[in-house]
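Lecture notes, unit on protein representations.

Consider one protein chain, 485 amino acids long.
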Amino acid sequence: MSEELIELALGVAEAPGIAYADVRLIAPQRYLSLGVRDGTARALTASQSAGLGVRVRTDRAWGFAGTGDLTTSAVREAARTAVRLARAASRSAPGPLRMTDDPGPINGRYETPLREDPFAVPQEEILALLAEAERRLHVHPSVKSGVASFDAWEEVKWFRSTEGAAYRSRIVHLGAGVAATAIRGTEVQRRSSPTSFGGDARQTGFEYVRELALPEQAEAAGREAVALLDAPACPTGPTTLVLESSQLALQVHESVGHAVELDRILGTEAAFAGTSWVAPEKIGTLAYGSALMNVVADATEPNGLGTFGWDDEGVAAQSVPIVERGTLVGVLSSRETAARIGLAHSGGTSRADGPLRAPLIRMTNVDLQEGDRSFDELLAGVDDGVYLATNRSWSIDDKRLNFQFGTEAGRRIVKGELGGLVRNPIYAGMTPQFWGAMDAVGDRSTWHLWGFPTCGKGQPIQGGHVSHGAPAARFRNVQVRSGAR
């Protein structure tokens, strides 16, 4: 039935004046969320949805329509609506659309490699694992609340275009984590593991959740949450800063990944915290950071949430250099935006949040590549500084230029050694100055690929799943302070 509906939609979309059309049919799109909070199962959510999206283009403008009703009448009407919208938009379009020549696959197949399908694991077994992990967060009476969570997503997609591109994919993402909240009087401290906001996520099977060993991680998180209650406030002033991997991954996401999305750079994505400090004419010459900064967007990376076979324009997954030795050399692009700045090919980053949304530029796996310093060597160059770990809060302007990040925990660095905990640390800066202050980058032993399944963009907003690999790294003369709690 899927092929017949796609054929129907393409047939209707190939109307007079339409230069191109593509169809995405998704069935099923499944989501499972399980959690245990303070000994009680919560957020027992299981959902399944399906739908079809039709995108068409005249020589001047796009039209898009989608439907969650997979009947022939609804699909036919969606295709007709997309055609009407494209024709209407063409009347006020400023000029012709140009597209890169990126032929898609003829009969492509992509599937997440799984040893254990998370949707086949009994929910009772998952809940038992979460319950044990949550129980072990409570290492002290000061731990007033604990949570252990698990989420899994599945998307089965068929894609076809009037250029002859066609593929089918099945992508599975999952994530899990724990968090302890310790309270004494008015002081509240939270410690999460393996990272905050639901834990770490990957494109893989349930075997990864087993490998996380959440019960063991829970005890350490609980102990540190309690210890933070008695920790002194983070010192205030400019200092040497060492960031652990997950915090630096979020820094990459906010101050690099979003800033190099070409629709933001060109000003066509501005409504939802959009635009960028990067000027289009500076691509290829802009000094983004120090010579130690090397960033790549790699949609072929194993286990990444931004890994796939082809994007939602049928462009093959690829690895795109973004920053080389501190200079911006590439961007995240679609077929249309790449053509606008004279690129021969799209970067293959056009993706949509399900069938009812039109594709837009999304991050893939945007990684800060490792350097040559061990963690001990990063610390060795610091007489007096701070080490910050695990994000608690973030704020960055719509140009991705001025930022402030808070972390769950910090430690003093004294004469090259980690010292005691400090609480409520915050650091702030401006993107080029911050990355320009990076004077040492951790080696592969400090590097980890982190999943970010809640990236928001667009209006109406679309959720996106992306990953960022990052090592630990050292930055000089960064402003830090203690946040009021």
